[in-house]
Amino acid sequence: MKLNYHHLYHFWQVARSGHLTRTAETLHISQSALSHQIRQLEERLGQPLFVREGRQLRLSEAGRLAFDYADAIFRQGEELTALFAEGGHAHREVIRVGAVATLSRNFQEEFLRPLLDREDLELGLQSGGLDELLRRLSAHRLDVVLANQSVRGDDQHPWRSQRLARQPVSIIGATRLGPLAPFPEGVAGRGLIVPGPESSVRHAFDRLCEVHRLSPTIIAEVDDMALMRLLARDTAHLAVMPPVVVRDELRAGTLTDFGALPGVFEEFYAITIRRRFESPLLKQLLEQSSELLLQ
Amino acid sequence: MKLNYHHLYHFWQVARSGHLTRTAETLHISQSALSHQIRQLEERLGQPLFVREGRQLRLSEAGRLAFDYADAIFRQGEELTALFAEGGHAHREVIRVGAVATLSRNFQEEFLRPLLDREDLELGLQSGGLDELLRRLSAHRLDVVLANQSVRGDDQHPWRSQRLARQPVSIIGATRLGPLAPFPEGVAGRGLIVPGPESSVRHAFDRLCEVHRLSPTIIAEVDDMALMRLLARDTAHLAVMPPVVVRDELRAGTLTDFGALPGVFEEFYAITIRRRFESPLLKQLLEQSSELLLQ
DNA sequence: AGCTAACGTTCGCTAAAAAAGAACAATCAT
DNA sequence: ATGATTGTTCTTTTTTAGCGAACGTTAGCT
Q: Which PROSITE patterns match (chains A, B) (predicted)?
């Protein structure tokens, strides 16, 4: 014997308002029908959901429990209808990618490349903070989030982080600074531009400095890779960053890679929600990206 | 025009199996009825949920989205029915309290005291790690969690932390150690037992040490208050802990309070889920506890 | 206290929907 | 080709939801 979700829905509405008559009006059904349905639900569940106090309905202990579930259930239902109502995904396939704003643009482009020449799909790209993007992912407003850190999921947030790439990190500076000794010595006495204290690259870099008993002069802490690229190009300071970010400048010769930092990597993750039915397009994209980028 | 949850339910079942006929059999309805209902749902939502490929049904892009929501919805529905089926809360009121295992037993007892002499309610008390307890709270298997740290809630985890008490923290040691100078000086050259590095008490204590340019000798890091009590009693080391934990020993004179640490507190929180309809019992308990403990 | 308006419940009856069943079309395996 | 299998589309039957009037309470008013 299955739960009748229409009964539950009506119970939900009555519990919200606390009045049977008023709820019947808003639902455009009679009081009697509503009363009967709630009675049926109570019989189905085996215990009263309301305590009848005079001419008032108060939630019972069991009613409060049932209400919490009903609330969760129908809020999601309304979210679903709203989603389909507000435009509909029409025919063309849609893939919506969220990227942490500080992420390398080159990496983003590389990830999206397989999608760019496809006429039959619509691509949405949103930038923002990780928290905001994960919220959108949970609300099904994004299909995948690109980030430079992994996120652990749990029962209620079924996130899955998949590492796509691992870029070495180098000391990089303007070519006009002239030749430079390799890492431990080269940076002594020079200003450094490094990633912010929350990033994994910074952690690894700090550890490396400790090992070499080195306390470098930090000129600036920069989260945004694009900004760091500009600073590396236009100042006389050295930057700690993945060479791939300034690939163009390295080729052109305006910037020089003064050597990779051992054990320091920037990692890229694709974060998705565990779904029972994955979009074949997304699945293919993630597999493809792993192959391309992990080489 | 509202969403028909029975249609959605049938869609959910069909999508899970991928076969219409088989699903119709398990649902004990005819294929035709099932087919018709899914058609109606598609019309209601304004786009096809299945792609008809030959004699097979495959989820469309929109179908995958709808399925994710339906899955969340009906999983909760099944949880609800299971909850009512497995025994029912019957008549007596039930309150289920989760307490972080490392929390002071005295505090737990103080919190539960108003409930202990009530014959008309059933009390459940579970100990465990914070993560585990919060999971149970989300699943409605607990009504309140007692912890020594607050938890921030978000849209999906509607947790609410309420501070119940704030206990001063002292340097405490065996009386036989003899008199001791107050904090900054007294601890010099002595071993200390302190709370683990994750706790707020430890953080506050470390800050205090920095201010006084003090680097004390850490003998042990202990999370469990009951264990710390034993160590304080049975070793020659000083412990950083709230006096209330060893109230009995202080009265008996076996332990001595060598002075409160300024600005260091252990805080106790009651964590509940934001519910539209709170249990009056729980509400009363929390108000009562605040008054009693915050004095 | 006695009246009245508001509220929830119960009981037949009717309208709407869900489900069954038969006929049909498409696909796959042999 | 052909029969078995699967999904769709009809029409008919069965079940469920809903209506409205009568009824029983309760709270508020005079």
A: HTH_LYSR (PS50931)
Residue B1 clears pLDDT 70, i.e. is over it: no
- Specify the CATH number for B93-165+269-293; select among 3.40.50.300, 1.20.140.10, 3.40.1280.10, 3.40.190.10: 3.40.190.10
In B 56-115, which Cβ lie closer than 7 Å to strand D? 56-57
CATH fold of B166-265 reads: D-Maltodextrin-Binding Protein; domain 2 (3.40.190)
Task: Reply yes or no on whether the pLDDT at A54 is more than 80.
Answer: no
Do A10 and A34 contact (CB within 8 A), yes or no? yes
- Say how far apart CA B14 and CA B24 lie, in whole Å: 8
pTM for this predicted structure? 0.73
Cβ A65–B83 below 8 Å, yes or no?
A: yes
A159 shares contact with chain B (CB less than 8 Å): no
pLDDT at res. A282 = 87
Asked if the model's pLDDT at residue A294 lies above 70, the reply is: no
What rounded mean pLDDT belongs to chain B?
Answer: 86
Report the run of H or E that residue A170 belongs to, with start and end: strand A159-174
- Determine, for residues A140 and B68 on separate chains, whether the beta-carbon distance falls below 8 Å: yes
Find the closest chain A residue to B79 by CA distance.
A69
What pLDDT is attached to residue B295? 42
Which residue among A69, A84, A138 places its CB closest to the CB of B76? Answer: A69
For residue A46, the 8-state DSSP code is T
Nearest to A66 by CA among A14, A29, A20, A27: A14
